[in-house]
């Protein structure tokens, strides 16, 4: 036996030993028949998709009475931490029956200072110091970074994606882990794709801005699976078959194939690890097939 180790890169990784049979023979047309032994392999591949970062929740910072903005400590797109100063309003303290929250408002002299209720990004800030605000007016919004998501489109029969699956979200040199939280039931009739929602796993301030376009990397891992070279697997009259080498000949056998990896096919049923299948010459054997077995000619 001679052993050949193959490593395939470009969204596909294969680690295994492929064993080719020493015994070679010719079919009736004189074509060389080559075989390989079925063995288990660790197969993995990646699939990349793209989409913008969104927030699943935002908090509006509202003025509960009329006043004049005295200071603004943030700007649009700025990342803020929970409890950070946002804006102060002069004259706001004079109202009766104040509706201040101890978590988001405090009085400093003649001003009421508003604080960020969560970690996030500043959005929709249109005011400047000196502007008058009225009761119920939204001063700005804080996009909650604890609930950042990415919605991206994937396509059927590419990967077996499941809820709870971990993914990598990257942009330039930034990388963050995400978790698949939802998969659309319906396929887009125009594109043939299916929407998948990923929630970013947050630790501290976010690495990505809301609206930033990112790449999502899905990894599909199949460990210790039976697989054969794709040239071994043939289709005949709606059946998936291979030719298995036996002591006295080559026998056609129906198999159930899984996902096609680059150059290899996962075998779900129909073969055992000790089986030997035809690689080179399988198509010629199929054309010769008139019964269950083709004899090996001396």
Notable traits:
Elongation Factor Tu (Ef-tu), domain 3; 298 residues; 6-stranded antiparallel barrel; mainly beta; disordered N terminus; 5-stranded antiparallel sheet; single chain; 3 domains; OB fold (Dihydrolipoamide Acetyltransferase, E2P)
Report on the architecture of this protein.
By secondary structure, the chain is mostly beta strands. It folds into three domains: about 1-45 and about 225-295, conserved putative lor/sdh protein from methanococcus maripaludis s2 fold, CATH 2.40.420.20; about 50-55 and about 145-220, Beta Barrel (Elongation Factor Tu (Ef-tu), domain 3), CATH 2.40.30.170; about 65-135, RNA polymerase II/Efflux pump adaptor protein, barrel-sandwich hybrid domain (OB fold (Dihydrolipoamide Acetyltransferase, E2P)), CATH 2.40.50. The protein has one helix and 28 strands. The strands form six sheets. It has a six-stranded antiparallel barrel with strand order 7-17-20-19-18-21. A five-stranded antiparallel β-sheet has the order 12-13-11-9-15, with no helix packed on it. It has a four-stranded antiparallel β-sheet with strand order 1-3-6-27, with no helix packed on it. A hairpin with a 5-residue loop joins strand 4 and strand 5.
